[in-house]
## 1
Amino acid sequence: MREYLIFRLYGMMASWGDIAVGEFRPTFNRPSKSAVMGLVAAALGIWRDEEERQRDLALGYLMAVRTDGPGILMRDYHTIQVPSAGTGATTDPVATRRDELAVPPEELNTILSSRDYRCDAVFTICLWSRTASPPYPLAALKTHLENPAFVLYLGRKSCPLALPVHAQVVNAENLAEALGTVRFPDDPFIAPLLCTTDCWIFWEGNEMTGYEPAHTVIRRDDPSSRKRWQFLAREEHAVLIKTPNGG
């Protein structure tokens, strides 16, 4: 038997990152490992600049994601004012957005930005220890997710959680058994958003999980350095299963 930590992520809006070039900021269709481990780190009270603790956390656990409800893609168009390079906030740190814009008007420029979000998407996250001595017991992660040190959000600060995560530690023979038995108290409330026929399971690692992967993809979302925003590649297996929410 193995311990698994399972919790749900739901919000009106979420953004899970993807390769971003220039002014376009896309989102993946499911949570990235960097986003999930960043959320867990926030719950534990780990600051972004605590790079060693951040990296230990990412190395300590394997992750699976079940797409209970894919949500709807929304694209938000922005115009943003920023100081010219070499002036204002580009040379001296500032505390507020107001301070950033406190430069002569001729030093302000307008840039365009498109940002993608997933609206009303529902995901079940499962974490389990990679080694016999993880940074934190799963029970401790559960406690902190229910009483987080910092505010939790879904990829961006403008995307707060809309429901509690309802973290649970379960004992099961494998991942399939763990995900197949877990239920959440708010299932009836969000039932219209949930898949009713099939849903995707994505997981990492090569151990026996109870699922037979239909395909494997490479994702560059394993946080390596928070200070330099560098990410490592990892394998993510996937399979389409009958949803436990089917009616």
## 2
Amino acid sequence: MGIELNGEWKVTYFPFGTGIRKVLEKSFVPEGWLSAQIPEDIHVTLRRAGLLRGHTYNKEPEEERWVEECDWIYYRAFMVPPDFGGNKTELICDGLDTFCDLYLNGVWIGGGENMHRRYVFSVKDELLPGKRNVLVIHFRSPIRAVEKMEQKGIFSITTSERILARKAQMNYSWDFCGRTVTTGIWKGITLVSKSEASLSCIQKKFTGRQKRRR
């Protein structure tokens, strides 16, 4: 049994490093937030809302730079049938771009640091069958998130920020495109309940940040 969590979400930005405790409160309402049609990156959302000019003649390279400097918070409320549940309940995220933390009903369920992989989170204990559920995904600025990472031995003819992020390299500009360092939910999200045994790779929960592999 599965429930797709695609379609309309709410999204807004916070300055990098701002806490989101208020967003995780049960009484919180995302009033005034933009509507995002997931899956899509934040630049698509902002262009549809008229907040970015998009691909236009004589566009200034720096005019969209503020987008990559912010944190972006996605909010989705959804209902789950009372009989939804089994031996395993998993949240499957096919594409999260890139540095993010996920919260279900105010509880941290895991994080991501690689836009190219699928993440599977066990949410059996956090999900509320038959009730309103809220999923919040906090994406940290892909530029600011790597600022304090160790750069010893790293060399780039452009900037080191692109080397430190497991992210589409063309975001930082390429010979066929300009710089658009985007973020967001770029592939679908599904909630799955399984009553029988299955083999899967679960994103482990941990109390602190995993040490980045070098």
## 3
Amino acid sequence: KAIALGAAVLEQASQLPGVVSVGLSANGAPLTHNGNTTWIRILGRPWDGGHIDVPEREVTPAWFSTIGAKLASGRFFTESDDSTKGGVAIVNQAFVRKHFNNGEAVGQNIGRVSIKTDPVEIVGVVEDIRQGSLDDEIPPIVYRPFKQNTDTFFNLVARTSQDPGALIPELTAAIRRIDPEILTLDPATMQDRLERSNAAYMHR
């Protein structure tokens, strides 16, 4: 159901005048927070029962290009990365620095903290994306395909060739056309979020 709703939101938003690309992310938009973490481990390594605590974000394939993220190695997600396929993930460069000593991460497997866990293959590495505020250190982050690990709460991001602020009420109206009871929270341009984060940084 969440996948169908996400597809409907993307379709409605992409049809608005001036919209260049759209994407969805669960558990947090850029410049918001580094929370919503999960426990993982690196498969194929000796395991003492401990865990790695990392923020996890579920995103649609176009989410990376919509926010201007750059691929460092491997590939981005595709529409075929769904629940019928093996688990895949993209990690950021901070993850590679910390857990692979700047070595090759693509092709390695991670998994949940369990003796028996389904492998999730790292298929790509992206340059670090600031999920938290400007004064937060960028942590190691794991990104999963939206279709493989869905959530009923998600963020919509849109890239536009027109005034971003003018697009916000149109996006809200487009989403409400799907279902008037859908709740939309804190719509803002990325410049707004940047200024909020910068203000928080300057006053600390």
## 4
Amino acid sequence: QNYDKGGPLDAGVRGVKGTLGHADGAPRAFLRGQPHVLAVVPPDKATEFAKVLKGRPIAPKVRPGEAMRLIVREPHRQVAIRGLKFPQDLKELRIWINPRPDGGADVFAEGDCTTPESAVAAAATMSTLITQTNSGLVQMGTAGVLNGAKVEADGTLIHTHVIASKTQRERILDTAALLMGVELKP
């Protein structure tokens, strides 16, 4: 709604609903061709990915008890957020969220690097990025959920675990809704 060029998008594949929007600092096609699957791709790739969505069933890799799972291959090429630069040796990043019985959430992230040495460097870079991103405004908008977050290396794997309290989870949702110009239902 807030993107002046946004709206319905014909991806050229029958049964695939498309919407043109803006994310990651660029225009994006949001495609739905199967239940529980959303593809977010550059607009010039919409038809190609729409065919993939209709070509074969895609089983979401959300595991029992998860609220969300995101897998990004080659994040240095896929994610364009000002001030955020992923290391090239980070080949895949996986993020997932598990709800907690107290209303909070466990947020996990792990990534695969090419060598143990590159994992150590990537963990240090990611820890620095988190610290730099966690400005006063971010701390206010997240109720400090990133305070103390640290990425560690284990062989060729990097990982982190952040526990968000119910208050932090609610603050993050409220902040996201404010930034997107939408109203959350209680």
